[in-house]
Amino acid sequence: MVKLIMAAAGSGKTKDIINQVNESAANEPGSVVCIAKGNQLNFDISHQARLIDVMDYSVTDYASLLGFVAGIHAGNYDITKIYIDSLYKVACDDKQADADKFLLALDEFSSKHNVEFTVALSGDASTASETMKKYL
Question: What's the start-to-end Cα distance of the chain, in Å?
Fold first, then answer.
């Protein structure tokens, strides 16, 4: 399952992600991972969740982000939830068509490996593509 949180910049998406990560870390039987760009969430995310700064790795586009997610899962099969904050920043790509392809690939990965994804994306939900609307 993929859930998309899409709203304008400054509307509280990151705060929502933080709350969801911390709640999942406290209640989820499996491992919880949060992927972000930069270290701005270091003091907000519970130590029970794994916070990963993609700036420490070679994530430069959606293909490398998908490979990164697969690698994280391959190293830890008990991951049940993965959160991605600010998708366009994490993937270094703000093209909606590229994000659509990534979300579809993430949904396929989710089905195959039983991992739930929550992705935050800056943008007006009224301008979401048909693909994005499936996950809102």
Answer: 11
d(CA 89, CA 104) in angstroms, rounded, equals: 18
Report all structural domains of the chain as residue ranges with CATH numbers, in order of start.
Answer: 2-135 (3.40.50.300)
- Whole-number Å distance between alpha carbons of 121 and 104: 15
The side-by-side arrangement of strands in the sheet containing 50-53 is 2-7, 116-122, 79-84, 31-36, 50-53
Check: pTM over 0.90? Answer yes or no. yes
Tokens standing for residue 78: 């008990």
pLDDT along the chain (136 residues), means of 10: 95 96 96 96 95 95 97 95 97 96 98 97 94 97
Of 30, 82, 29, residue with least CA distance to 54? 82
